[in-house]
Amino acid sequence: MKTDSRKTFPVVATSDRRSLDREWRNVGGLIVPQPCTGEVVYIHPAMNRRIRVNGRKKQSCATVLSKLNQLLRDGMTADMALVRRA
Length: 86
Fold this sequence. Notes:
Layout: H1 17-26, E1 30-33, E2 39-43, E3 51-54, H2 62-73, H3 78-85
Antiparallel strand pairs: 1-2, 2-3
């Protein structure tokens, strides 16, 4: 029998933004609402750019979802984010 040597990582696949926001905060991310524009900015210490999305839509943004899955694939957790920030 052939065994697969690749590790499997949890994949977040949701269209609900509340659960996406919860997972984003669990990996050490920060969500900042922008006043008067209705936009929301997703920030993470492991990223060098911010992700800006429309905050009025309740659907999850594909850009944020793919970045979250990338952070999970890289093994980024909230503890690692705090260490990396210092």
